[in-house]
Amino acid sequence: MPKQIFRIDRFEKGILSAYDSKDIPAGGLVTAKACDVGTIGIVKLLPKAEIESGDYSTGTLTDTDYKLIPGTGFFTFPSDFTRPASAAVAVERETEFYVYFYGPLFFLLDRVAGGIPVWDANSTSFNLANYSIDLGADAGTNAVVKPVFYYGDGALRVADGNYTNSNNDVGFKNRWFGHIKRSLFVDATASNTADKLVNHNRWHAEAQELIPPKLDSASNYHEQWITGRGSTVAGSVAFENTGANVDAPSDDDCMEIWVDSIANASSTWDLSAVYTFYLSFIYDGSQESPVTQLGTLTMGSSGESVFVGVTVQYASGADGESAEVPDNVWRINPRITGGRLYYSDPADGSGTKYLFLDIDLVKGCKKADELDYTVWGNTVPYREFECPAGIDGTAITATTKGFEFEDPPKALTYDILNGYGPEEVTSAKYKCATIFNNRTYIGNIQQVAKVTDAYDTFTPIYPDRIVRSPVNFEGRPQFDTFPATHKMDIAVNDGDDIIELEGYADRLLVFKKKSVYIVNVSQDGAEFVEKQLPYIGINHASQVVKFEKGIAWINPSGCYLYAGETDVVNLVEGKVYSGGVWLPSANWSGGTLSQRWSVDPSHTPAITYLFSKKQLWMSHSMNGDDNANDAWVYDFKTEGWTLASGAIGTFSRNRSNFMVDSSGVPRFVQYDPTSATEKLDLYSIKDLPAENNEFRLVTPDIVFGFPNVKKKVYKVYISFKTNKQDTNVKASYSTDGSPEFAKLFEDGDNFVSNELNTTSEDFSTNIDAGSGVFDLSSDNSSGGTGLTKTSSNNTIRYKNSGAAKGYARYNLGTLEARTYNIRLYFKPGFGGTSRLENVKPFQAIFSVTTSTANPDTNNIFSKVVGQEGAYSFSFTATAVDHYFYVENQSAVSGDFIEVSDLSSTEEPDYYKAVLKPATSSQANNIYSFQLKLEAATPGSTNVPAGFEIGDISIVYRMKNVK
Fold it and tell me: Which of 70, 81, 494, 572 could form a disulfide with 179 if both were Cys (CB 3.0 to 4.6 A apart)?
């Protein structure tokens, strides 16, 4: 029979180990380690997580007893403000923050602070005194904090999800951390400048709980805050009903309510009644605390009107001027923007609280039955205030200076305004939380029975309970409000605790250890379980990721996707064999060579999403004790699975959870105990191919369409690209299903000593990523200063000094007249007053010219970039010297651009390697043929980042059937 050619030119289905190796359909592979199959018809190398450049290192620790908890503790969030390194005012500029913890202490890294980010002014080391958030005191010696984060409405919330640990002190409190920018009492004083105490423009850490007022002279708020970094007192309030002359609050009270009555025949108040008054605090302009009972008012013997007034002492300093230190003098929690005064009518029962007076620290005070506010008066500049103006020094009823109520207002109640009761508990501890559809959902909670109760070892825990935050009557979210009545219990007492919550398309996914519940939350108060999915739960929050296509999660039986309108789909089913047990990749070298789906919750698996490549990345383990730093990769473009070998940091070190920041880049923190002082390193997964010493590709066991007919294989042709002569890619084969792959090929075109090789190609003009030779700082820079290079990972930073733009240049040398590729990873940074949304389209220009004069002379190619990400472009050279330019387009002092992983390679046609069996008899009279390509010395020799496979052709002949 004549010779035939069997061609393999499709790889996009990736690993199909659910099939027998002889039955794998076209486009599938037995093994694909470090293989990127996201481009149809080509195999490239997958990225690897890389340490961020030196300035982004998380720094060293000052306590050598520290150890990172795998799969937890890392968070990112965006803000409109920088985090100043001292008491200076934050700059209004778009900023990305990274958060990490050291026990109950939490530190923030500002990615753009002055162009050189550090952790809370700690420089390169963590100084435990320089923290942003403190959960409180820990009475235990071995307490393990497991942070729970969520971010919304400009503030970060942090809780300890390990409150059931007997070693954790009940003093650990949920914390709120955000930037407060507001001016209070704006109409009360003239010449009110930004440096006064009533004008906030600062970051503040505080208790998350909406603490109600404390009646009468408790410990001053600022004393509580200084010692506890989140007080148990939000502000103390006095109540006066004796007819005494109005004056400012005293004895550390922040507010005093003045109530009295005076004869008025037209009044409709019940003269036989005793009316009780209550006060709440308003937080962040939209969230209302429970009420505190203030006192009563007994009416007179004839018709009477009720009068009320309010005085405030905002700070206890001398005069409220800028010389004061705010933390030392505030009498009230800075989150508080006002309060509401209520009363109860005994005729209706004490449970109904009618709105009496709306107190707004910005606008003034407003009677419950009026529309307009009465502005504040100022008795001591920037410190003491009265409403209405003129009440100070006289009785509240004198000459009717107070707010007069002829009739008891009954239009609005606390319940109507909020949707829950005035004495209802609105705080809770929680093990998971998510913001979804303008509400916060918390799960697996601990909640006291009464507002006045303290947390202790007997406080009930509800592992199956979810509480949702309400939306107030104005339609504003209340992300810190968790009324006990706004609860959902999911399969109570089923022995299956809630682990994580995520929402998508009007559905809340409730992840338990054994099951997943899909809850329809489209109608507030009418939520219901739409579907239970048994046997596919999770053990760690790190096993879930939300991204633009839906929610994905992993467990021992697969990788599941919920996309809203369709049922949950197992992306592994029918593709990857999932019947195996935990086996780190180091053990996946024999047998059938088929990768099996191995997710073991005891090894803390984690999942993330690489937006630029539309890929899910699933780390087998974030533990540092199981020799696993590989990741499964699912490509949504091709629906294929591959394995990113050795890609998630260092296998012997503990790693945190993944976080995808606002630029779409997945990041995590890794603990490094090898230095004299322990260190945390920040890693990111970039969308650039990375060299890899675990590369392996194994084709199906090819039967050429006739499994029971013998054949002879004559040659194998492999089309490939490379940016180095030595690919370090070894080729071998097996026959008839043997797992040994001990059969080799003889030397041939572009194939020497069992390896793909391009000995005839000159790569001397190539500049390889990471080698340190692409050093812009050594050649030329013009305009601006501050060009630096971090040689360890080939990172160049070009920072403006003053307002000068500038450029740097690298001499590419004399190039042949052919096409070249340049690849790089770009990241913008801002150190001045510029904002990301204003400059990101034009932050940098990359260009190639044949002139040393400037980037615009004899320009061959230009590329304008702004957003962080990987970039590649090609240009056609002529036989002269060429120069690569990097231009910083920002004219703002301190703004910088950063370039890393920079490489320049010749763009050749595909090389064709000819592989002929070294012993022809070994490829004769065979039933099947299987090819393996892998790193020449697995775990040692690197396959270059520019290596690609185009297609594989096998020349064979069928034997005659006898």
Answer: 81
- pLDDT (0 to 100) of residue 838: 45
Query: What are the tens digits of pLDDT across the range 900-924?
Result: 777 777 766 789 999 999 999 999 9
Q: Give the E-state strand segments of 628-735 in sequence order.
A: 631-635, 640-644, 659-660, 666-672, 679-685, 696-698, 711-721, 726-735
> What are the sequence ranges of the domains in the chain?
3-46+692-761+910-958, 73-174, 211-418, 776-819+827-895
CATH of domain 3-46+692-761+910-958: 2.60.120.260
The pLDDT of residue 452: 85
pLDDT for the residue numbered 318: 67
Nearest residue to 732 (alpha-carbon basis) of 706, 753, 711, 750: 753
Cα 222-224-229 angle, rounded to 5 deg: 90
- For 381-424, strand residue ranges (E) read 384-387, 403-405
Which residues are 411's β-sheet partners?
Answer: none
pLDDT band at 218 (very low <50, low <70, confident <90, very high): low
Backbone angles phi, psi at 300, to 5 degrees: -85, -165
Angle at 349 between CA 348 and CA 355, to 5 degrees: 70
Residue 224 has pLDDT above 70, yes or no: no
Q: If pLDDT is split at 50, 70 and 90, which confidence band does 780 have?
A: low
Residue 478 phi/psi, 5-degree rounding, is -130, 75
> Which has the closest alpha carbon to 705: 924, 958, 961?
958
Which pairs from 550-557 meet CB under 8 Å and 24+ separation? Answer: 550/504, 550/505, 551/502, 551/504, 551/509, 552/607, 552/609, 552/616, 553/511, 553/516, 553/607, 554/599, 554/605, 554/607, 554/618, 555/599, 555/601, 556/597, 556/599, 556/600, 556/601, 557/597
pLDDT band at 772 (very low <50, low <70, confident <90, very high): very low
Is the confidence at residue 692, as pLDDT, over 70? yes
Higher pLDDT, 212 or 893: 212
Give the SS3 label for residue 223.
Answer: helix
Paired with 757 in beta bridges are: 726
| pLDDT the model gives residue 114 | 41
Strand partners, 78: 96
Please check whether residue 447 is in contact with residue 462, taking contact to mean a CB–CB distance below 8 angstroms.
Answer: yes
pTM of the model: 0.89
Token readout for 593 is 């060579």
Distance CA(371)–CA(390), nearest Å, equals 21
DSSP state of 373: P
Q: Supply the Cα-derived Rg of the chain in whole angstroms.
A: 34
Q: What backbone phi and psi angles, to 5 degrees, belong to 305? A: -95, 150
Q: Count of residues for the chain? A: 962
pLDDT in tens, 594-644: 578 888 898 999 999 999 999 999 999 999 877 789 999 999 999 999 999
* Secondary structure of 231-257 as H, E, C letters: CCCCCEEEEECCCCECCCCCCCCCEEE
Q: What is the DSSP string of 881-906?
A: EEEEEEEE---STT-EEEEEEEEEEE
Given the DSSP bridges, would you call strands 439-446 and 461-468 parallel, antiparallel or unpaired?
Answer: antiparallel
